[in-house]
Amino acid sequence: MTSRSPGEDASLAGLPGTDAGTASVPAEAAPAAPAGPGQEPLRWPSPYPADGQAAPEAYPAPARPGQPKYGSPSTAFRGGRQAGFRQPGYGRPRSGPGPSGGLGQARQPVPQGRAVQPRDPSLASGWERLLAMTVDWMLILGASFLVLYSQMERLVQQVQAVSRADEVSQAAGQAAVTHFLRDPSTASAYLSYSLVVYGLAIAYFWILQATGGATLGKLLVGLRVVSFMDRTRAGIRATGLRTMVFLVGPVAFTFATRLGPAGGIISLAGAAFWIADCAVLLSDPERRALHDRVAGTLVVRTARRSRSRPDY
């Protein structure tokens, strides 16, 4: 082992020395170390400061006998936790409910997705609107048939003749069908009937909804058309715009086929718009169709039905 001088040990220990590399340590505090023959005994610095001498800041004095050593944990923090402090069990939920407001309270299951909110019971459901619409169209088609009764009677007779010819033979049935489709009276009756149907539909939906807030089918089911903003009666402009957007799909599907090759595309577009109008009605939370969104209207139940019949 290499021996070091007292000055080197004093400089390492941070003790003040008399000069460079020499520490001023009292002789009585430094025990003598054995030396070789012909050499002076070496004195090592004492780990305890002498009486009246303070320990240097860089090297704190070790604890005296009977005192706790430096760096030993206190009795308040034995075992890695402070006395009187309850550590939460992170990552280990309890099997049962914990105390109210405690850190170990059991985790509540989080619902996946958006919570389903109950719908306003005053809003008309999809099947109620479809039922009212079916009643309205049956009334319009029946009234148009009565208006063109003479033409419709001849058209019915031609259809019966085609069915009788088909019963005789397949060739006779095909010839009767070809004659029926190419007959100018058939095309005239179809065009006249379509014009009367949509003419009556415009007057029926527009006038009844603007004056009374409901068609006959809606009155039968117990529905009415109101403004979306304040749920007051929809005005003439709103009900007129609502009627035009509602009928644009059926009108394009019916009359566009007579416009040549481009008419087929327009007819398919009209049919797609008609289907989309009904699909939005069934999927929208407020049961607003496309014509309702364009016109700013809403279909609700009457006050009597909204109180007596909840929505499912």
What is the helix content?
40-55%
Separation, N- and C-terminal Cα atoms? 94 Å
Radius of gyration: 50 Å
Poorly predicted spans: 10-30, 75-80, 89-93, 95-105
Number of helices: 10
Order of helices and strands: HEEHHHHHEHHHEH
Mean pLDDT: 73
Strand order of the largest sheet: 1-2
DSSP strand content: under 5%
Helix-strand makeup class: mainly alpha
The general outline is elongated
Q: How many strand units?
A: 4
Largest sheet composition = 2 strands, antiparallel
What does the model show?
The chain is mainly alpha-helical. It has a domain at 126-308. 49% of the residues lie in helices and 4% in strands. Helix 2 packs across helix 5 (184-211) and helix 7 crosses helix 8 (261-283). The longest helix has 28 residues, at 184-211. The model is unreliable at 10-30, 75-80, 89-93 and 95-105 (pLDDT under 50).
Detail the topology: elements first, then pairings.
Blueprint (H helix, E strand, L loop, with lengths): L5 H8 L18 E2 L8 E2 L82 H22 L1 H20 L1 H13 L1 H28 L4 H6 L1 E5 L8 H20 L5 H23 L6 H6 L1 E5 L1 H6 L4
Antiparallel strand pairs: 1-2, 3-4
Features of the shown structure:
312 residues; mainly alpha; two-stranded antiparallel sheet; 10 helices
Q: Would you summarize the structure shown here?
A:
This protein is mainly alpha-helical and 312 residues long. The chain has ten helices and four strands. The two termini are 94 Å apart.
